[in-house]
Amino acid sequence: MAYSSHSTPIILNITHVGFDPTDTNHFNITIQNSEFSPEEANITEIRVNIGNIIVAELTDDTVPSLPFILPSGTDITFMCSWNWSPSSGKDVVITVETSEGYEATYTYRIPQTV
């Protein structure tokens, strides 16, 4: 869920994260801007943390590219380029940020590589 100091929040959710153990150079993330959000969300950053350490800032490494305008009531799947094999088996926190100051987070255990 997204939080900000705005009076009516954008409701941003990460609905799916997918790591394919046979492709350790990418992962997918699906982001939804709720139909109840009062406006579009300008997604500007996706990052991955392990503990308190940022291990990947994916501002320039996504398809489609960032920034990305996500209208209310829609979702988008990003393919993120990141060699995650050194982090295999670890818990990560994936954060999506918008230019409006909203963010959504998702905790995920990266699968073991094949």
| SSE topology string | EEEEEEEEE
Gross morphology is elongated
Estimate the helix proportion, in percent: under 10%
Low-pLDDT segments: none
The major sheet is characterized as: 5 strands, antiparallel
Give the averaged pLDDT, no decimals.
Answer: 93
- How far is the N terminus from the C terminus? 33 Å
- Beta-strand residue percentage: over 45%
Short description, anyone?
The protein is mostly beta strands and 114 residues long. The chain has strands at 12-18, 26-33, 41-50, 53-57, 62-63, 68-70, 74-81, 91-98, 103-109. Strand 1 and strand 2 form a beta hairpin.
Label this structure with key terms.
about 110 residues; five-stranded antiparallel sheet; mainly beta; single chain
Can you tell me about this structure?
The chain is mainly beta and 114 residues long. Helices cover 0% and strands 51% of the residues. It has strands at residues 12-18, 26-33, 41-50, 53-57, 62-63, 68-70, 74-81, 91-98, 103-109. Strands 3, 4, 6, 8 and 9 form a 5-stranded antiparallel sheet that branches. It is elongated. The N and C termini lie far apart (33 Å). The mean pLDDT is 93.
Secondary structure blueprint with pairings:
Layout: E1 12-18, E2 26-33, E3 41-50, E4 53-57, E5 62-63, E6 68-70, E7 74-81, E8 91-98, E9 103-109
